Automatic annotation (TrEMBL), chains A, B:
Pathway: Lipid metabolism; phospholipid metabolism. It is an enzyme of class 2 (transferase). It is found in: Cytoplasm. GO terms for molecular function: phosphate:acyl-[acyl carrier protein] acyltransferase activity. InterPro entries: FA_synthesis, Phospholipid_synth_PlsX-like. Catalyzes the reversible formation of acyl-phosphate (acyl-PO(4)) from acyl-[acyl-carrier-protein] (acyl-ACP). This enzyme utilizes acyl-ACP as fatty acyl donor, but not acyl-CoA. It holds the Pfam family FA_synthesis. Homodimer. Probably interacts with PlsY. This is Phosphate acyltransferase. Belongs to the PlsX family. Keywords: Acyltransferase, Cytoplasm, Lipid biosynthesis, Lipid metabolism, Phospholipid biosynthesis, Phospholipid metabolism, Transferase. It comes from the Bacteria.
């Protein structure tokens, strides 16, 4: 039996469903991955009850971290951070901080999860603001890494540069893309090509030593033009949800067209294998598990509405991030970036006051 | 025979293709609509040659407006506006300004089209900045009107309010929605709910007398939660292109799944009617024809890559806007808005300095 060397702390109570999703997903994951050990944060009795219902591996695969409180989906950041100091979220992050876990995961309230993670773990040197990154399937059969998805609404050029370095590190370390290509989300032929922040960010990115492809537009996300796309959190959040919305609409329409009369239903039955393959390719449950980047620890966010299958994919993201050394790799990438910017400032390519990524 | 009372000026030279798209589309439209007369702006000889190839109606349905220059797709606004004063774009807009046409349309360079239209026609009282609006199909079987789509990158709360009034007028007058519902595009549960501009815009919208539903998120576009969605031009442009990109990706994948082996191809053939119906429902050619709102004249923008079928839909948009009195209706709506804001300021609901929509 391999050593149980990857330890994941799970906020078992978070999400729209909570325990009936998180526990079965952890059990199934532990069965498939003999190297993984779970720290289950939450109400001990409720966790034990849920564990009874699932058949876990015979090995010693988990430990319970008691937590007396639960952050609700509509709790404010204030409440989550100041009033619920014994929440399952807080306990899961604390396990990473204390070195007892290598990664932590929650399907709860995104704002609270980000705030608690940031408060407990702090940001990496050179990073002002953590960002949320996820993968979006593209027509090339791969996935495009996109960030920020909602942690930062108002961004400076330097923040976008920080997102770029973190996103590139994620794509190269976890998705094994050598020198991932990087695009800056912008608008096209229309009246004004981008605002000031985006223009300045492009300048910094050209000097960054990253594999900067240039500006990309909205349709480049699904085209897979670049490996990583950077934008501010307002744009990223709206775009991600728009994409999910249109995919859902097309799925609904497709279902509608294949159920509207007997002939359509018959052909739909025959076409089922092809339609199922399509469904699997765009199934966003397979892309569950956004990474909260820029923190001194690996933190993963699952969709609140995830089922056990989707939550399993988010656990997989946590596992891969630990296995591939995301944290050390990101730290090294930031050091390299700083050197590139110092060189660029010395060569007069960028202003001196932009020579450090942190503001 | 009905009176030919709707006059549309067409930039015949604009777009990726130009004459072979614009002329056949105008011919076909004139055949279907006996009330429409065209003013064809461009190179007279080239227009005549193209007209020879198409069988127009027997009635006197067109007039040629000679123009010696063409704005190219990559011409800067500067070049289009200052150096090409006899362009087909300029001549088409001028026809509206001179009262010879009721609307004008181009498939050319968006930035140039907007700049020329604004320069020649000027904005309506109470409107600082024109905006670009289009319809996006939603799962309810209708369409969501969205603006701005790229004319304005940096917006204040008052600009968003102006977009709201113009978009509502468009939806109520052209799409015949009584008191169209209005949403402000924002981000959801994440860390910070919207930036300052969006928060202030919500306050103004609540005082505006418009049918303001509140904040909406990206997935509400295709859900059809509201009739009109307002956002700044950067976000709108990126979202529109993202949506087009994901729809195209799913169409490509669908084609791929139905051609990968003999069985799939056979079922694909049987399923063709259902698949074609789906294609028609999401065919963005049917939604071609964005409106440039806030100008003292009706100005329509067709996709640059439109074929004659798509350009015909854009002509239809122009026709409907004239027929339903979009311009007068918008002017009345702005007057009503001003009254509402004055009342709200008098009642202390909004600050005094926000009581006029124009900044």
């Amino acid at each position: 039996m391999p050593a149980t060397d990857i330890r994941i702390a799970v906020d078992c109570m978070g999400g729209d469903v909570g325990l009936p999703v998180t526990i079965p997903a952890a059990v199934a994951f532990a069965q498939r991955n003999a190297d993984t050990r779970f720290l289950l944060a939450g109400d001990p009795a409720a966790i034990e009850a849920q564990l009874q219902a699932s058949q876990g591996p015979t090995r010693d695969w988990y430990e319970i971290l008691p937590a007396s409180e639960v952050v609700l989906m509509d709790d404010s950041v204030e409440v989550a951070l100041r009033r619920k100091k014994d929440s399952s979220m807080r306990i899961a992050v604390q396990a990473v901080k204390d070195g007892r876990a290598d990664a932590c995961i929650s399907a709860g309230n995104t704002g609270a999860w980000m705030a608690i993670s940031r408060y407990v773990l702090k940001t990496l040197d050179g990073i002002d603001r953590p960002a949320i990154a996820t993968s979006i399937p593209n027509v090339k059969g791969g996935a495009t890494t996109m960030l920020d998805l909602g942690a930062n609404v108002d961004c400076t050029a330097q923040h976008l540069l920080q997102f770029a370095i973190m996103g590139s590190a994620l794509a190269s370390i976890v998705d094994h893309r050598e020198q991932p290509t990087l695009g800056l989300l912008n608008i096209g032929e229309e009246v004004i090509k981008g605002n000031e922040v985006v223009k300045q960010a492009a300048e910094l990115l050209r000097a960054s030593g990253l594999n900067f492809h240039g500006n990309v537009e909205g349709d480049d996300i699904c085209k897979g033009t670049v490996d990583v796309i950077v934008c501010d959190g307002f744009v990223g959040n709206v775009v991600l949800k728009s994409i999910e919305g249109v995919a859902r609409m097309i799925a609904t329409m497709l279902r509608g067209e294949f159920t509207r009369d007997a002939w359509s239903m018959a052909t739909g039955l025959l076409a089922k294998p092809a339609l199922n393959r399509l469904r699997d390719r765009v199934d966003n449950r397979r892309y569950n598990g956004a990474a909260l980047l820029g923190l001194r620890g690996i933190v993963i966010k699952s969709h609140g509405s995830a089922d056990a299958y989707a939550f399993g994919w988010a656990l997989q993201r946590a596992h891969e991030a630990v296995q591939n050394g995301l944290l050390d790799g990101t730290t090294r990438a930031i050091d390299n970036l700083r050197q590139s910017l110092r060189d660029a400032a010395a060569a007069g390519d960028i202003p001196n006051d932009l020579s450090d990524p942190a503001t």
